[in-house]
Input
Amino acid sequence: MGGTKSVDVVISGRVQGVSYRAWTEREARARGLAGHVRNRHDGSVEAVFSGPEAAVDAMLAACREGPPGARVTDVAATGRPEVASAGFRILS
Output
């Protein structure tokens, strides 16, 4: 049985200007995950995903593909001790 999992994620490649944040928000909410997503100044996207372990793992796998137009070169995830608050949102 899987428990709860929380991760900090940095997605690199062509991930800005292709609706990656909106896509991530939809995908995370569909999986019942909490957390957030935002663009970084270096051109990557960062996210926090919290929820059932299987759902977080599925989200990480989906992030490797991303929305149409994205070209993901890396998805780096590290565990985090605290669980994100309820809901999923896009940060500026």
User: Anything to note?
Assistant: The longest helix spans residues 20-30.
